[in-house]
Structures are given as structure tokens and as C-alpha cells.
Write a structure and sequence with these properties.
Membrane topology: Multi-pass membrane protein
Mean pLDDT: 88
InterPro entries: MATE_fam, MdtK-like, Membrane_Transporter-Flippase
Strand content: under 5%
Largest sheet: none
Main location: membrane
Low-confidence stretches: 1-6
Distance between the termini: 21 Å
Number of helices: 17
Number of domains: 1
Radius of gyration: 21 Å
Keywords: Cell membrane, Membrane, Transmembrane, Transmembrane helix, Transport
Subcellular location: Cell membrane
Order of helices and strands: HHHHHHHHHHHHHHHHH
Length: 457
Amino acid sequence: MGKTDSRELLQGNILENLLKMSIPTMLGFVFQSVYDIIDIIWIGRISASAVAGVTIFATIFWLVEVLNEIIGTSSISIISQSYGSGDEERTKLAVEQTFTFKALVAVIASLIIIMILKPLLHFFSSDQEVLKAALDFGYIRIFFLPIMFSSYTVNTALRCLGDAKRPMIFMAIAAVLNIILDPIFMFKTIPFINLPGFNLGVFGAGLATVISISFSFIVGFYILMSGKTKIKPSIKGLFKLNKEIDWKLVTIGLPSGFEVLLRNLSGLVTLKLVSLYGTSAVAAIGIGNRLFGFAFMPLVGFAMGSSAIVGQCLGGHDIKRAKSTVREAVIINVVLMIIISLAALIFPKTIMAIFIDSPDVIEAGIPMLRIVTPGLIASGIFMGLGSVFSGSGHNIPFLISSIIARWGVQVPLLFAIIYLLHLPIAFVWLSYLIAELVELVVIYISYHKGTWESKRV
């Protein structure tokens, strides 16, 4: 294999290319978020303690996402730039190494987190119902971590090759299957149809998730390896390690990985501080996280679509086209986030009541939605501008912005709010909004500095 001229993203209308890449990606993540929201609705039917337990585990589980972030971010720039330059052989090698290296790292991470899970959970809560829910949901998710990472690799590889539709289909399959399996596994009697279920409770929610991800991965892996895509990885190549590619998979995304680590550690600290306001507050932030995750999906879609295009543009030495792509992404992101923010400002009680009927949780959640959701507008600009760093491999600005916003501003502010000023929880929610604005300022400065324009991997 040698060179390929199939680089469609470097030609044609910029907005059309961005939409072609981003809308399927966005829809795929929207499907996933719809599942996440329905999942928390079902768990809310069990108890507020169950919601709190799943929330605490999910926060801890994001620590292992640091590893996926490091390798995944690196792979975006390596695969897209290799493909944009027309080097098919290096593109194939990059895809193979991303599979192998990420799966190996996932196995190691699974072993480590199993050993430290219980002590971490006890750090957040001594409520036995909360701890049991976290463990029931958590162990099976940890066991299937390599499959989860590999499913991410399938989707990332296809997007970097300019194919955003198939990942959307795979994610839709997983979400729909998850939605179907959740009530069957969780409840003694399946809601609405009154047929017998397996009555597995919170464990059933975790089981439904891993089955759905595994099925989606098998379908995606088969298609990627069958030669029906633009690059055909080989099974033989999956059993080899390449020092040059693997080193880049670790180092290029390392700043981004540290950024996610620091963000997640700040999330752990924040969750601990929120827990001082009681289980209802933890349940409220758990619901909020799912809602914000859903609202964030359009941003993720356009960021990933834009990153792949930027990577190919840099591989093809077209800086002007990369900048135009980013500008379009920012405009679209801001419009979408304004619409979502208005809905949260006008209907917060109705939105919270969809998830849980506890008055205390709803009362804690209303100011959370009204205060935090407008920060999504800042996130829209942040994600749009940030796509140049993922596409170029210049990920240090992500790290700097996270350190300043989370550790330099939000965490100290939270300690002051809780321990010095003894303010109500509404001020805790305000710290999230302030952190988002600070993060945007840092990334805006980094974008205009222009270092990313000359960065190649």
C-alpha cells in the first residue's frame, strides 16, 4: 500500500463538510446521552441512594478515562494527519496500534481500579445503600473496560477517515439495545408491559450497558476489519507493537490526559464538597451531570468533526481552511447552546421532575440548572476553538486551561464558599459557571497565539 488521493474533507464547501462529519457524530453521542438519561430515570425509580451510588462510581470511573483520553486524542491527530497527507500505510499502522495499545492499557487500568475502588467509595459516603449501588453498578463496568476502549477506537478511526455515519449507527445500536435491556434486567416486573423481569436492580443497569457496548463493538470491528472501509487494518498487525507510533500515542495526548485527570480530580473534590450538603445534593448533581452530558453532545459532535477536518487540513498544509472550519463550528455551537440554556432557565422544575419525585432533590436541582446551564455557551466556544489542538496534536492549552480554571479558581472558591462563608448550595453551582468562563479565556488566548498552526505529528 502507498498513497491515496481520497481526501474529500480537503475539498468542497467547508460548512457542508463540517456538517457531514459533525451531525452523524453528534447524533451518535445524542443516542448515547438519551440512554444515559433514561438509565438515570430507571435508577431513580429504585431510590435516591441508588442514583447517588451510580453518580459516585461514575465520577471515579472517569479517572480511567484519562488513559482513553491520552491515547484517543493522540490517535485523532496521527490518523487524520496521516490520511490527510495521503500516506495509507501509516494510516493503517496508526489504526492497528491504537487498537492494540489502548486495549493493553485498559487491562492494566481495570486491575488497578478494582484494587482501589472500595477505599475511594468510602471517601465519598458511608451510606451502605449508596456503597452497594456503586459496587453493583461498578464491578461489571470495570471488567468490560477493554471492550469499551476498543469500541471507542473503532469510532475514532472511522471518523478520522472521514466516515462519521458508521460510528453514529454503532452508537445508536448500543443506545437502543441499552434502553430495551435496562428495564428487563433491573425490575421484577417490566414497567408498562407488566411482564416478569430479572430483578437485578442497579447491577442490571450495568449489565445492560456492557452487553450493548460489546454488541456494538463486535459489529463495528467486523466492518472495520472486513475491508469495507477506506483503510483495512490486518489481524496480524494487532499483535505487534510499534515503538514510534506507540510513543506518539502516549506523548501527543499526554497534556490532554493530564487535563482530564486534573478535571476529574477536581470533580472528585467537588463531589466530596457537594456531599456535605447531603444525599439529595449528590443525587441532584448526578442528574445534572447526565443532563449536561446530553446538552454537551452537540459540542462533542462538532468538536470531533472539526478535529478530524483540521487534522486532514494540517496534513495537507491548508491552514486557512482549518481556521474557517473552526469558525463555523463555534457559530453553530453557540446557537445550539443558547437554545438549550433557555429551556433550562424556563423549565428547571419540570426537567428535574422527569428524573425523580424527591422534593429535596428537585429543590437542589432547580438552581443548579438555572446557574450552570448558561455555562454551556462558553463551553460551545471552548470546544469549537479547542478542535484545532486535537487536530494538530498541540494539546498543552487544554492542560493549562484546566489547571487555572479548576484548581486555580473553582476548588479554592468552593472551599471559601463552604468552610469560610458557609453559603447555601446555590453558590456551589455558581463556581461551575465561573470555571467555564475562565477556561474559555485561556483557550481563546492559546488559539490566537497560533502555535497549533505549525504543529505536525
